[in-house]
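User: Hi! I'm working on a homework problem where we have to compare a predicted structure to a textbook description. Could you give me the structure for the chain below?
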Amino acid sequence: MQNVNLLDDDLKLIIQPCDRETEQYLYQLGFKPIAAVPQLFYRTAGETKLADLFFRMSHLIPDSAQVASRFLVTQFSLDSRNLLIEFLNAQPLSSMTLMIKNSWFLQVLARQRLFFKYQPIFDLATGQVVAHECLARANEQGQCFSGQQLIDAALSMNLTFEFDELARSTCLESLAKLCTRVGTVETPQTFFVNVLPNAIARDPKTLEQNFQQVIELGLRPEQIVFELTEVEALQNYPQLSTLIEQIRDWGFGLAIDDLGSNVAIDHYCLEFRPDVIKLDRRLIHGCSRYVLKQIMIKSLLQFAHELGIAVLAEGLEDDNDVDFCRELGIDLGQGFGLAAPEVLPWQARGDLFELPVRGRWMSAAC
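Assistant: Happy to help. Predicted C-alpha coordinates:
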Protein backbone atom coordinates (compact mmCIF):
# COMPACT_ATOMS: atom_id res chain seq x y z
CA MET A 1 0.00 0.00 0.00
CA GLN A 2 1.29 3.44 -0.93
CA ASN A 3 1.81 5.85 1.94
CA VAL A 4 -0.11 9.11 1.62
CA ASN A 5 1.51 12.26 2.99
CA LEU A 6 -1.30 14.06 4.83
CA LEU A 7 0.90 17.00 5.79
CA ASP A 8 3.16 19.27 3.79
CA ASP A 9 5.48 22.11 4.63
CA ASP A 10 3.19 24.85 3.30
CA LEU A 11 0.98 26.75 5.70
CA LYS A 12 -2.41 27.37 4.12
CA LEU A 13 -5.10 29.89 4.98
CA ILE A 14 -8.50 28.47 4.05
CA ILE A 15 -11.60 30.64 3.86
CA GLN A 16 -15.26 29.70 3.43
CA PRO A 17 -16.75 32.93 2.00
CA CYS A 18 -20.31 33.76 2.89
CA ASP A 19 -21.31 35.13 -0.53
CA ARG A 20 -20.15 35.79 -4.09
CA GLU A 21 -18.98 39.29 -3.29
CA THR A 22 -16.59 37.93 -0.67
CA GLU A 23 -15.35 35.36 -3.19
CA GLN A 24 -14.38 38.21 -5.51
CA TYR A 25 -12.43 39.90 -2.72
CA LEU A 26 -10.59 36.64 -2.07
CA TYR A 27 -9.67 36.36 -5.75
CA GLN A 28 -8.20 39.85 -5.54
CA LEU A 29 -6.03 38.69 -2.64
CA GLY A 30 -4.70 35.70 -4.58
CA PHE A 31 -6.97 32.98 -3.13
CA LYS A 32 -8.07 30.00 -5.26
CA PRO A 33 -10.91 27.49 -4.82
CA ILE A 34 -9.95 24.02 -3.62
CA ALA A 35 -10.64 21.64 -6.51
CA ALA A 36 -12.22 18.94 -4.36
CA VAL A 37 -14.28 21.41 -2.32
CA PRO A 38 -14.88 24.54 -4.45
CA GLN A 39 -16.83 26.23 -1.62
CA LEU A 40 -13.49 26.64 0.17
CA PHE A 41 -10.77 29.04 -0.96
CA TYR A 42 -7.12 28.79 -0.04
CA ARG A 43 -3.86 30.63 -0.27
CA THR A 44 -0.44 29.37 0.70
CA ALA A 45 1.34 31.76 3.02
CA GLY A 46 4.27 31.76 5.37
CA GLU A 47 3.67 32.67 8.98
CA THR A 48 5.10 36.13 8.43
CA LYS A 49 2.57 36.82 5.64
CA LEU A 50 -0.51 35.65 7.52
CA ALA A 51 -0.81 38.83 9.56
CA ASP A 52 -0.60 40.90 6.39
CA LEU A 53 -3.33 38.82 4.73
CA PHE A 54 -5.68 39.18 7.67
CA PHE A 55 -4.95 42.91 7.81
CA ARG A 56 -5.79 43.34 4.12
CA MET A 57 -8.99 41.30 4.51
CA SER A 58 -10.02 43.41 7.49
CA HIS A 59 -10.01 46.51 5.27
CA LEU A 60 -11.25 44.97 2.03
CA ILE A 61 -14.09 42.66 3.14
CA PRO A 62 -17.20 44.26 4.72
CA ASP A 63 -17.56 43.74 8.46
CA SER A 64 -20.79 41.73 8.11
CA ALA A 65 -19.09 39.37 5.66
CA GLN A 66 -16.14 38.94 8.00
CA VAL A 67 -18.55 37.77 10.68
CA ALA A 68 -20.36 35.34 8.35
CA SER A 69 -17.25 33.86 6.67
CA ARG A 70 -15.07 31.22 8.36
CA PHE A 71 -11.35 30.55 8.30
CA LEU A 72 -8.78 27.89 9.15
CA VAL A 73 -4.99 27.84 9.12
CA THR A 74 -3.63 24.35 8.45
CA GLN A 75 -0.74 22.27 7.14
CA PHE A 76 -2.99 19.45 5.93
CA SER A 77 -2.78 18.62 2.24
CA LEU A 78 -5.67 20.01 0.19
CA ASP A 79 -6.73 16.49 -0.88
CA SER A 80 -6.73 15.10 2.63
CA ARG A 81 -9.98 14.00 4.28
CA ASN A 82 -8.57 15.31 7.52
CA LEU A 83 -8.78 18.80 6.09
CA LEU A 84 -12.59 18.73 6.05
CA ILE A 85 -12.70 17.22 9.52
CA GLU A 86 -10.42 19.97 10.80
CA PHE A 87 -12.52 22.63 9.08
CA LEU A 88 -15.42 21.71 11.36
CA ASN A 89 -13.52 23.76 13.96
CA ALA A 90 -13.18 26.80 11.70
CA GLN A 91 -13.77 30.18 13.34
CA PRO A 92 -15.47 33.36 12.08
CA LEU A 93 -13.06 35.39 10.00
CA SER A 94 -13.90 38.41 12.15
CA SER A 95 -12.36 36.77 15.22
CA MET A 96 -8.95 37.22 13.61
CA THR A 97 -9.44 40.36 11.51
CA LEU A 98 -10.71 42.30 14.52
CA MET A 99 -7.64 41.29 16.49
CA ILE A 100 -5.36 42.34 13.64
CA LYS A 101 -7.25 45.58 13.00
CA ASN A 102 -7.20 46.47 16.70
CA SER A 103 -3.69 45.31 17.46
CA TRP A 104 -2.92 48.90 18.41
CA PHE A 105 -5.49 48.60 21.21
CA LEU A 106 -3.79 45.53 22.65
CA GLN A 107 -0.55 47.51 22.72
CA VAL A 108 -2.33 50.38 24.49
CA LEU A 109 -3.52 48.00 27.21
CA ALA A 110 -0.20 46.18 27.50
CA ARG A 111 1.89 49.34 27.64
CA GLN A 112 -0.72 51.43 29.50
CA ARG A 113 -0.47 54.18 26.90
CA LEU A 114 -3.59 56.12 27.93
CA PHE A 115 -3.57 59.84 28.57
CA PHE A 116 -6.36 62.34 29.16
CA LYS A 117 -7.72 65.61 27.89
CA TYR A 118 -10.03 67.77 29.96
CA GLN A 119 -13.14 69.45 28.59
CA PRO A 120 -14.58 72.29 30.67
CA ILE A 121 -18.13 72.12 31.99
CA PHE A 122 -19.73 75.55 32.37
CA ASP A 123 -22.40 76.96 34.64
CA LEU A 124 -24.62 78.40 31.90
CA ALA A 125 -26.04 81.09 34.18
CA THR A 126 -22.70 82.55 35.30
CA GLY A 127 -20.32 81.44 32.57
CA GLN A 128 -17.98 79.95 35.17
CA VAL A 129 -16.07 76.71 34.63
CA VAL A 130 -17.33 74.42 37.38
CA ALA A 131 -15.85 71.05 36.40
CA HIS A 132 -13.99 69.13 33.70
CA GLU A 133 -14.75 65.83 32.01
CA CYS A 134 -11.75 63.51 31.69
CA LEU A 135 -11.59 62.15 28.14
CA ALA A 136 -9.34 59.17 27.45
CA ARG A 137 -6.95 59.25 24.52
CA ALA A 138 -4.10 57.03 23.35
CA ASN A 139 -0.98 57.45 21.22
CA GLU A 140 0.11 54.30 19.44
CA GLN A 141 1.97 53.62 16.21
CA GLY A 142 2.25 57.36 15.59
CA GLN A 143 -1.51 57.83 15.65
CA CYS A 144 -3.78 59.45 18.23
CA PHE A 145 -6.94 57.47 19.05
CA SER A 146 -10.09 59.11 20.39
CA GLY A 147 -12.19 57.93 23.31
CA GLN A 148 -14.84 56.53 20.97
CA GLN A 149 -12.21 54.56 19.05
CA LEU A 150 -10.94 53.14 22.34
CA ILE A 151 -14.43 52.12 23.46
CA ASP A 152 -15.29 50.62 20.04
CA ALA A 153 -12.08 48.58 20.08
CA ALA A 154 -12.73 47.39 23.64
CA LEU A 155 -16.27 46.33 22.74
CA SER A 156 -15.24 44.54 19.54
CA MET A 157 -12.55 42.56 21.39
CA ASN A 158 -14.62 41.93 24.52
CA LEU A 159 -12.10 43.84 26.63
CA THR A 160 -14.35 46.51 28.11
CA PHE A 161 -13.62 45.43 31.68
CA GLU A 162 -9.85 45.62 31.19
CA PHE A 163 -10.09 48.97 29.41
CA ASP A 164 -12.45 50.52 31.95
CA GLU A 165 -10.31 49.41 34.90
CA LEU A 166 -7.12 50.76 33.31
CA ALA A 167 -8.79 54.03 32.30
CA ARG A 168 -10.15 54.76 35.79
CA SER A 169 -6.88 53.94 37.54
CA THR A 170 -4.77 55.91 35.05
CA CYS A 171 -7.17 58.84 35.19
CA LEU A 172 -6.96 59.12 38.98
CA GLU A 173 -3.17 59.00 38.86
CA SER A 174 -3.19 61.75 36.23
CA LEU A 175 -5.54 63.90 38.30
CA ALA A 176 -3.33 63.61 41.36
CA LYS A 177 -0.29 64.77 39.39
CA LEU A 178 -2.35 67.48 37.76
CA CYS A 179 -3.71 68.89 41.01
CA THR A 180 -0.21 69.01 42.48
CA ARG A 181 1.13 70.66 39.35
CA VAL A 182 -1.44 73.46 39.14
CA GLY A 183 -1.73 73.98 42.89
CA THR A 184 -5.36 73.01 43.34
CA VAL A 185 -4.99 70.88 46.45
CA GLU A 186 -6.53 73.50 48.70
CA THR A 187 -9.12 74.63 46.12
CA PRO A 188 -10.00 71.29 44.52
CA GLN A 189 -11.44 71.08 41.06
CA THR A 190 -14.25 68.71 40.15
CA PHE A 191 -13.71 66.05 37.52
CA PHE A 192 -16.16 63.78 35.70
CA VAL A 193 -14.66 60.31 35.24
CA ASN A 194 -16.37 57.94 32.80
CA VAL A 195 -17.36 54.50 34.04
CA LEU A 196 -18.82 51.57 32.10
CA PRO A 197 -21.42 50.20 34.55
CA ASN A 198 -21.26 46.68 33.12
CA ALA A 199 -17.56 46.60 33.97
CA ILE A 200 -17.95 47.66 37.61
CA ALA A 201 -20.96 45.37 38.03
CA ARG A 202 -18.80 42.49 36.89
CA ASP A 203 -16.20 43.20 39.58
CA PRO A 204 -17.35 45.72 42.24
CA LYS A 205 -14.00 45.41 44.04
CA THR A 206 -12.40 47.62 41.40
CA LEU A 207 -14.40 50.60 42.68
CA GLU A 208 -13.24 49.94 46.23
CA GLN A 209 -9.69 49.91 44.88
CA ASN A 210 -10.39 53.27 43.21
CA PHE A 211 -11.62 54.67 46.53
CA GLN A 212 -8.43 53.57 48.26
CA GLN A 213 -6.43 54.98 45.35
CA VAL A 214 -8.13 58.37 45.70
CA ILE A 215 -7.27 58.53 49.40
CA GLU A 216 -3.66 57.41 48.88
CA LEU A 217 -3.16 59.94 46.07
CA GLY A 218 -4.33 62.81 48.26
CA LEU A 219 -7.48 63.45 46.25
CA ARG A 220 -10.94 63.86 47.75
CA PRO A 221 -13.89 61.67 46.75
CA GLU A 222 -16.00 64.84 46.53
CA GLN A 223 -13.82 65.94 43.61
CA ILE A 224 -14.82 62.92 41.53
CA VAL A 225 -18.13 62.51 39.72
CA PHE A 226 -18.47 59.03 38.25
CA GLU A 227 -20.28 59.35 34.95
CA LEU A 228 -22.17 56.19 34.00
CA THR A 229 -22.19 55.52 30.27
CA GLU A 230 -23.88 52.74 28.30
CA VAL A 231 -26.55 52.60 31.02
CA GLU A 232 -29.18 51.26 28.64
CA ALA A 233 -27.57 47.81 28.93
CA LEU A 234 -27.98 47.43 32.68
CA GLN A 235 -31.11 45.32 32.94
CA ASN A 236 -28.98 42.26 33.65
CA TYR A 237 -27.31 43.84 36.68
CA PRO A 238 -29.93 44.43 39.38
CA GLN A 239 -27.13 44.57 41.98
CA LEU A 240 -25.96 47.85 40.49
CA SER A 241 -28.31 49.83 42.76
CA THR A 242 -26.43 48.55 45.81
CA LEU A 243 -23.14 49.48 44.16
CA ILE A 244 -24.43 53.01 43.45
CA GLU A 245 -25.28 53.45 47.12
CA GLN A 246 -21.74 52.43 48.01
CA ILE A 247 -20.37 55.04 45.61
CA ARG A 248 -22.44 57.68 47.38
CA ASP A 249 -21.39 56.51 50.84
CA TRP A 250 -17.76 56.99 49.84
CA GLY A 251 -18.53 60.59 48.87
CA PHE A 252 -18.31 60.39 45.09
CA GLY A 253 -20.78 62.22 42.88
CA LEU A 254 -22.88 60.48 40.24
CA ALA A 255 -23.87 61.49 36.71
CA ILE A 256 -25.80 59.60 34.05
CA ASP A 257 -24.90 60.10 30.40
CA ASP A 258 -26.94 60.13 27.18
CA LEU A 259 -30.34 61.05 28.59
CA GLY A 260 -32.84 61.64 25.82
CA SER A 261 -31.36 59.06 23.46
CA ASN A 262 -32.03 55.43 24.37
CA VAL A 263 -31.76 55.84 28.13
CA ALA A 264 -34.93 55.70 30.21
CA ILE A 265 -34.88 58.77 32.46
CA ASP A 266 -37.80 57.66 34.60
CA HIS A 267 -36.18 54.34 35.57
CA TYR A 268 -32.58 55.39 36.11
CA CYS A 269 -33.29 58.77 37.72
CA LEU A 270 -35.84 57.39 40.14
CA GLU A 271 -33.64 54.41 41.05
CA PHE A 272 -30.18 55.99 41.14
CA ARG A 273 -31.03 59.65 41.99
CA PRO A 274 -27.90 61.02 40.26
CA ASP A 275 -26.48 64.45 41.00
CA VAL A 276 -26.35 65.27 37.29
CA ILE A 277 -28.02 64.04 34.15
CA LYS A 278 -26.40 64.75 30.78
CA LEU A 279 -28.74 65.37 27.87
CA ASP A 280 -27.53 63.55 24.77
CA ARG A 281 -25.87 65.66 22.07
CA ARG A 282 -28.32 64.35 19.47
CA LEU A 283 -31.13 65.92 21.47
CA ILE A 284 -29.25 69.18 22.08
CA HIS A 285 -27.95 69.74 18.54
CA GLY A 286 -30.36 72.13 16.81
CA CYS A 287 -32.58 72.49 19.88
CA SER A 288 -32.99 76.22 19.19
CA ARG A 289 -34.70 75.39 15.88
CA TYR A 290 -36.75 72.22 16.42
CA VAL A 291 -39.93 72.47 18.46
CA LEU A 292 -40.11 68.74 19.21
CA LYS A 293 -36.63 68.81 20.76
CA GLN A 294 -37.61 71.85 22.80
CA ILE A 295 -40.67 70.06 24.19
CA MET A 296 -38.59 67.02 25.15
CA ILE A 297 -35.85 69.11 26.77
CA LYS A 298 -38.37 71.15 28.79
CA SER A 299 -40.01 67.95 30.02
CA LEU A 300 -36.69 66.40 31.05
CA LEU A 301 -35.57 69.61 32.73
CA GLN A 302 -38.76 69.91 34.78
CA PHE A 303 -38.61 66.25 35.75
CA ALA A 304 -34.99 66.50 36.88
CA HIS A 305 -35.37 69.76 38.80
CA GLU A 306 -38.36 68.42 40.70
CA LEU A 307 -36.04 65.62 41.88
CA GLY A 308 -33.23 68.06 42.72
CA ILE A 309 -31.03 66.84 39.87
CA ALA A 310 -28.84 69.21 37.86
CA VAL A 311 -29.08 69.07 34.06
CA LEU A 312 -26.11 69.30 31.69
CA ALA A 313 -26.47 69.90 27.96
CA GLU A 314 -23.84 67.97 25.98
CA GLY A 315 -22.55 68.75 22.51
CA LEU A 316 -23.20 72.49 22.53
CA GLU A 317 -21.68 73.83 19.32
CA ASP A 318 -24.06 76.50 18.04
CA ASP A 319 -24.44 79.87 19.80
CA ASN A 320 -28.21 79.80 19.32
CA ASP A 321 -28.39 76.40 21.04
CA VAL A 322 -26.28 77.76 23.91
CA ASP A 323 -28.61 80.76 24.30
CA PHE A 324 -31.71 78.54 24.21
CA CYS A 325 -30.37 76.22 26.90
CA ARG A 326 -29.31 79.14 29.09
CA GLU A 327 -32.68 80.90 28.77
CA LEU A 328 -34.55 77.67 29.43
CA GLY A 329 -32.70 77.24 32.73
CA ILE A 330 -30.43 74.29 31.96
CA ASP A 331 -27.78 74.30 34.66
CA LEU A 332 -24.61 73.20 32.92
CA GLY A 333 -23.19 73.10 29.41
CA GLN A 334 -20.38 71.33 27.60
CA GLY A 335 -19.27 71.21 23.98
CA PHE A 336 -16.91 72.52 21.32
CA GLY A 337 -18.98 75.68 21.02
CA LEU A 338 -17.93 76.52 24.58
CA ALA A 339 -14.45 74.99 24.83
CA ALA A 340 -12.53 72.09 23.33
CA PRO A 341 -10.77 69.41 25.40
CA GLU A 342 -7.22 70.37 26.34
CA VAL A 343 -4.27 68.61 27.95
CA LEU A 344 -4.60 70.93 30.97
CA PRO A 345 -7.83 72.04 32.69
CA TRP A 346 -8.75 75.67 33.15
CA GLN A 347 -7.13 77.33 36.16
CA ALA A 348 -9.27 78.62 39.01
CA ARG A 349 -10.39 82.18 38.31
CA GLY A 350 -11.33 84.85 40.83
CA ASP A 351 -12.55 84.32 44.37
CA LEU A 352 -14.11 81.15 45.68
CA PHE A 353 -17.83 80.93 45.06
CA GLU A 354 -20.79 78.66 45.72
CA LEU A 355 -22.31 77.36 42.53
CA PRO A 356 -25.99 78.27 42.08
CA VAL A 357 -26.97 74.77 41.00
CA ARG A 358 -27.99 71.53 42.66
CA GLY A 359 -26.03 68.59 43.99
CA ARG A 360 -23.72 68.08 46.94
CA TRP A 361 -20.63 67.76 44.75
CA MET A 362 -21.12 71.29 43.46
CA SER A 363 -20.03 72.98 46.68
CA ALA A 364 -16.38 72.67 45.61
CA ALA A 365 -14.83 75.75 44.06
CA CYS A 366 -12.96 75.44 40.77
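For your comparison, note the following. The first strand starts at residue 7 and ends at 16. Residues 160-182 form the longest helix (23 residues). Good luck with the assignment!
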